[in-house]
Amino acid sequence: MDIATFRKDVLGLTQEEFARRVGLKSKGHVSDIERTNRCSPKVALLIERLSEGKIDAADLSASVAMVRKPAKPSSSQAA
To answer: Alpha-carbon distance 48 to 57, whole Å?
Structure first.
């Protein structure tokens, strides 16, 4: 589910109300996130928490995705 759909259809919030819920200062920031599907790790985690996991923070932040990505076994461990 994308952020705009979740914000409007599930929460019934305006961009301004959603911004306040995740600690952003402007609805413009929410608009940017909805358009690019990218944000800071902190905001991504807040959105994930607000959505109760329906929106994955790793989909919004490459940094979160990198931390959550399972480590590949090294060639020396594979044997």
So the answer is: 5
Whole-prediction pTM:
0.83
CA dist 4 → 10, 13, 57, 67 (Å): 10, 10, 15, 25
Question: 47 near 38, Cβ under 8 Å?
Answer: no
First-residue to last-residue Cα distance in the chain: 40
The C-alpha atoms of residue 64 and residue 36 are separated, in whole angstroms, by 16
pLDDT digits (tens, 9 = 90+) for 1-48: 899 999 999 999 999 999 999 999 999 999 999 999 999 999 999 999
Token pair belonging to 69:
């990505």
